[in-house]
Amino acid sequence: MQSIDESREHLIESLQQQAEELAQLNKIAVALTSELDLQRLLQMMTDAARKITAAQYAAFFLIPEVMENPTMPPETKAGFSLAAISGASERITAHFRHLGTVEGVGILYPVFWQGVSVIIDDVLHDPRYQGIPHGHIPVRSFMGVQLRARTGTILGAFLIGDTQPGKFSARQFELIEALGAQAIVAIHNAQLVARERRAMEIHASHLEHEVRERTAELECRNQELSRFATNLQQLHHELTEVQKRQMLAEERSRIAQDLHDRVQQTLFTIGLKADWAKEQLDPDSPVTGALRSIKQLASLGTAQVRDAIFALSSNSLPEEGLVKMLHTLIHDLRQSTSLEADLVLAEWTVTPPSHVEKTLLTVAQEALSNVRRHAYATMVIVTLQVTHELVMLVVQDNGVGLSPQMLQTYENNPAHFGLRGMSHRIEELGGTLTLVNGEDGGLIVKAVVPL
User: Does domain 4-198 sit in CATH 2.40.50.100?
Assistant: First the structure.
């Protein structure tokens, strides 16, 4: 017979256990109101089931439709999938995860297919027991509590086990059934949340589509307005630039004309007077050197004025191109030699292709190099004419020219590599290169390229 102290101790222990059980159920009830993630909630319930029953293992199985698509009606005789497991090692957990759907045979059959919750003190003595599959938990005590939907359809079950027989009591069975009822509420709430989330996603997608359409329309209209404003601004800018260019061209033309009519003529006259005065003096006169310097300065001033007139008169030409390069070539020739060299732009209708300009510049360089080295000339003139149909470049000097024999044989004579190269380059462009002696002496090199 128990003493009063033993009875009190047993009562206190029982009350503490009940308090802990109620605390676990209350924890789950609170989680139902705050936790919306079904997977985390099911794991929490599975952990609570193992703790309430003091079991070694607890698992929660559900039909796949609950986890994958809560709106699908469960089908009869469907397989069951592991939703959560508690107390198992990583190896055993991995084994259960790889099982896939479980059909439910042996001691699982009444729980999964007949909707009957069971407690088995020792599975080894149960006639329905079919043995332990490879890798399975060695369970002796077993509790299976089925879960039903409001319509009566079986959704899954709590499966709780222990390696010791006779482990579970009727009180624990009642607690797990209460926990199962809460699990049904959690699943139902998860289905409602999922439906609402999908409805919100569809609505948000529809709104996003409408926003994109309206945004695209606004962007299209903004682009049209922007293009219109840009066109107006560009038109105003072009008109302003045309007026500026016209005024600048007129002023440049006026200055160039004044330089030609006044300054250049004055410098030319100074040079003539210096020549005349030098001829009147004795060659040994100390003034002769000063007059020679005056003549040279007058010639330099004339060349500089000529460059200025060219720069002012060529404002309508491209900033870079054949004309500018030829002008630089002529300027360098005057600076490095005593030759009187000029560039004459007879006509400029269009800008030739870059490869044509490059070839003609090479021809001009070769021709001027020959004048400088072999012609014994004092003057050379480069003339350029560009029309819609052709480009013509002429280099003419007042030197000794070429012998008739050389004019006839230069294309086949390896000694005249430069002349042959000019001819071949022009022929590659479909043009012609002619070399003739001038009537008053010197050589005329004429290149014609069709456009």
Answer: no
